[in-house]
Amino acid sequence: MKYTQEYIDKLTYGIIGCAIEVHRNLGPGLLESVYEKCFLKELFIRNFEFKSQVWLPLTYKGLDIESGLKPDVLIEDVIIVEIKSVEIILPVHQAQLLTYMKLLQKPKGILINFNCTNIFKEGQRTLVNNLYGELPVR
């Protein structure tokens, strides 16, 4: 499938909708692992194609490295979602997601923090890289 910015943006809207539904039902204050399990169930209910905790291949100077890196969720093979339950999203959280996007060659990532009062307003950050900018708009 050839992706477009419009397609990826529509996916993003649906993904954030899943996070809002989980947050509406559970509220803040739980462990990331709980939110992740419920978020995966919501993705399944809404028929998203996804993989969770997939090992990230890493090659360093031509050598394959077992890095132990596992992005939380890869949705439709195009958007990486990192789930947090922290007081505030730190620059290191964004850097981690941007690095995952670079290593996996994915154009968009969403950082979702369930420890907030409103997912839409303060609990998510959407990041794009140069791959997104190179995609056709429609």
How many domains? The number is 1
Q: Main sheet?
A: 5 strands, mixed
Sequence of secondary-structure elements: HHEEEEEHEHEH
**Oligomer category:** single chain
Structural class comes to: alpha+beta
Strand composition percent: 15-25%
Question: How are the strands of the largest sheet arranged?
Answer: 1-4-5-6-7
The low-confidence runs, each spanning 5 or more residues with pLDDT under 50, are none
| pLDDT averaged over residues | 95
* Rg calculated over all Cα atoms: 15 Å
Give the helix level as a range of percent.
40-55%
- The helix tally amounts to 5
How many β-strand runs?
Answer: 7
Describe the global form: globular
Q: How far is the first residue's CA from the last residue's CA?
A: 13 Å
Walkthrough of the structure:
Helices cover 43% and strands 21% of the residues. It is built from five helices and seven strands, in the order ααβββββαβαβα. The chain starts with a helix and ends with a helix. The protein has helices at 5-26, 32-45, 91-104, 119-122, 130-134; strands spanning 50-52, 58-60, 63-65, 73-75, 79-84, 108-113, 124-128. The protein has one domain. With 138 residues, it is of the alpha+beta class. The protein has a five-stranded mixed beta sheet with strand order 1-4-5-6-7, with helices on both faces. Strands 2-3 form a two-stranded antiparallel ribbon. A hairpin with a 3-residue loop joins β4 (73-75) and β5 (79-84).
